[in-house]
Amino acid sequence: MVTAASLISLSLITPAQAEPTAFRDDSPIVIPNVQLAPEGTLLTNREDAAIAPGVHYTSFDRYEPNGWVRGDLLTLDLTSNGFHLDYVNSGKVAKTDTLSRQLTNAGAIAGVNGDGFDINDTGAPVGLGIRRDGEVVSGYAEGTAQRRGPSAVIGKDGLARVAQLFLEASATDGEHTFRVDYLNAPHVSAGTIGLFTPEWGDVAVSRTLDSGATPWQVLLRDGVVVSSGPTVDAAQLADNEQVLISRDGGATKLAEFTVGESVDVEYAMRDSADIAAAINGFFPVAIDGEVVTGNTTDLHPRTVLALTRDGSRMALMTVDGRQANSRGMTEVETADFFLSKGFHHVLNLDGGGSSQLNARLAGQDAATIRSAPSDGGERHTANSLGIFPTDDGSGQARGYSVVATNSLVQSADADASKDLYVFTGLSRVVTAQAFDETYAPVDAAPKFTVLGENARVGATDSADTVVLTGRAAGTTELVVGRGQDVSRQEILVLGRPVRISTSTPQVSFASIEARDTFQVFGHDERGFTTWIEPRDVQLDYDPALISITAEGDHFVVTPKVESGSALIKVAAAGIQTELAASIGLASTVVDTMDSMTGWSATKFPAAVGASASLAVGQGRDGGNAIALDYSLTGTTATRAAYLGINPTITLSGTPQKIGAWVHGDGQGAWLRANVYEATGGSAKTINIASKVDWTGWRYVEADVPAGLNMPLRFFRLYLVETNPAMQYSGRVLIDDLTVRSAPELPALTIPRETTPVLVTDGSVPESFWRYAVVSDAQFTADNPTSDVVAQARRTLREALAANPEFIVIAGDWVDRGFARDIALAKRVIDEEVAGRVPVHYAPGNHEYAGPSSLTEWIKVFGEPSHTFDHKGTRFIFRSTPGYTLRSGGFDQIVDLKAQLDDAATNEAVRNVVVVQHHPMTDPSATGGSALSDPKEATMLADWLADFALTSGKGVALQAAGVGVFHASSTDGVLQLINGNAGKGPSGDPAWGGFTGWTLVGIDPAAEPQPLDERRWEEPRQWMSAEFRPHVDRLEVSAPEAVAVGAAVEVSAEVVQENRRVPVQYPVAADWTVSEGVEFDPATGRLVALVAGTHTVSVMVNGTTTEATIVAS
Questions:
Q1: H helix or E strand, kind and range, residue 293
Q2: Burial degree of 1108 (CB within 10 A; 0-12, 13-18, 19+)
Q3: Which architecture, in CATH terms, is 401-494?
Q4: This prediction's pTM
């Protein structure tokens, strides 16, 4: 969400202290949105904050055709007297440290990593450095081999420029004068002379000499030669010592300096009289307004320094890279980024894993990491450029930053937007961090006042911290401060939670030394969610097995026994849920693979080759193993060679990991495994190794997803190739199929997520117009009369019988996208629908599979991304062939945002339905069928939630692909997941794991919800849906006789193939009972109020059955 003032909108202070006021769009150091994300790209997130007078911080996320770019940007007004810049290091040249420690130890409030350095040896920076007031720390003379690009030079007037600086240094004994080429440099080339001072550090200077003939070292103490000879061993120089070193021709020169004589050493930067500080750039990418690089291919994390022509403005930026969250930038992109913003010179500082930006936000004690280093943590680097406050400030509170006290959100990409949400009846602990006019933290005891009746304030032991308790849903304002020096923070009070959940269904410990954590979340009726304060949570568990302590916004679980399992009961707001704890893992070889009993090879598709045989004496320990010979050739479709066992192997206990010894062939195939849950359904996939890129024996294993229904049954291992261009054959050996299991876990009782959108008794209101949704038949033209094709035809006929105004196919109607498969799909649709209603088709990943394009599909069905309005509802169809919207073309993402923006203000549009194959979230335990880019999924969720909030109109995502029927509401956005039409389902029948289709109804008279109701009032039902299973047989279970007034249980089941589907949420049904009977379909509780013969009937998807009950 773009929140241009989200971080500094709290800093409202008196007019007399105008500098720290809230973010101003017209400030010359604030980058406009359009410059952060030019045409053809999308700005998906922005946060801004003032760091110091004249220093502004912006973080941004940009989505573009080539992926994500995430950056952190400091813009500086160098004419401000509120700060100054300086060169920073660890205290020694040849000593690295993290950026955080460099800046904190120096007293900086912000900064970036600096120059490249000798990462594999001395750690010293390669380029020059000048510390405040012109002190030269390191450098090199003109013409040396280590010459770097130009430097960023800070003048004594505070303005900056880009200049090529050179060291001017010499050593003389009066008779002999020699040029010194390097000062505290990591490399001293043959024939040149290097000077080292106490600033160098503890590293032996001999490590800086490049290869060559005899070296020489001259050690000076108080300017007098104390040693001169071929042994180069100086290190840890005293404050009054210097050393000169060289080899080859330079050594001959140094030999002229003899013990006892005085040598005068002088060094400075050329033309440095007006220099206050300087740091070397790695290389320039733009000089004098022109791009000076042609590199358009190398994507890396970047640290960048940019200057305007007059040197009055500077920008320091890091761009994250080498991660899914951010691809990095090329050199040309980096140059263009800043030239488009009016900067004139652009230097690339050290990038890659070194790139990092730290900043102290208002009221914080120290600069913290704002970027996301590609190494996963802070790298030790040689130096940095720091921003320092000019003055200490008045120490008087001028504003307050309000934060959730217990929030542990720290990473650059973590979402803290919901930290200041509080549920009605629950609490949020908040702290006001006071700051003065320089944004430095100060001690203060502010007054806290809540405006209105939505929340109340409770005191704590700390004067700057209070407890807010939600009283009524709505927006309220927390006023912090005294007199005119106050800040105002919006607090959102949600409704009462209707469900609670934990961040994981299971915490696991491989040993007693391990630790694990979980958070507790609440969900109100509209699906608005936030974490629940540990103070509001009650826990019940066996303290002999585990201990649990609150830490910030989560709980830390510690095992107390070597092996065992525990049930953790969690309660908040009168609602309960559970999670399990497993302690210790025991390894079990479930099949030694010493014989072929039960094992066989299969393949898909037919063109692939696969065979299994016993590899006698070739096992990892000299025994036997099973060989899988394969040929993933003959087609460009996704290809797989399977090694399966029949009957399946029941895995006892609670498996946490599954693996095997694999003798790899280095071909790079994807190694996966399939297991079945106890509840049946389709096989669950576990990724054992992303690539078999090794040769020889290796043990590989993977985690078993938490939440699967135990006991599991092992089905098969297989090799798969999805890249059409990768055509190869090979052989792998498999030995000792192994599971590592935790002790058997207790069964969990977890509240079910429900939504009133689903009709479970009755039908879609008559006043609503209707459309039908089908998906995931997954047939191929290999067998046009297969059972799967028959199921697809049946589904279309059932959907048509409900008289929809059109049919939506939500993807994966076929299993492959070759021309003959698409032709069969068209034939089935034409023959069954016969033009009676329109059919709108959103392709999935299987329409793409095979040719690895939608070309054949487009020839038949047209453009996959399209939009139309029907009776006030805008339908936006998008394509996700590669599990992302971007894989369907970036233009469709830009268009999606435009369609939503138009629909928000278009009076003819009452609500919006986005149709695509992949959902934003996958409710299954494996979670592998949602959009694969979590950042893209979050973007889409934010867009839809913003649309609902700003317009008051209904919005839903219609998806499929998971293999279950599921409905949810999150932040006011509905998500309907259609289950399978032909292919077997993937989940428990009681949790939506059945085949069938969806009937959706929409209120044609729906009106936008008033602004004051959009976040917290009971959601208006503009949409209604029925999940209709295929019914082969429908059975009602009821007692034949009951006593009048006694409660009995009545239930029904749908029988389809080998599945029995309970007629309960989320199945659509219509129950009818005779007069004199009370019946609750949600619980199955029936009470006969009068004597006599009564009937109970239920209809599911057009099939009706009944039972007779005699009451006496």
A1: none
A2: middle
A3: Sandwich (2.60)
A4: 0.87
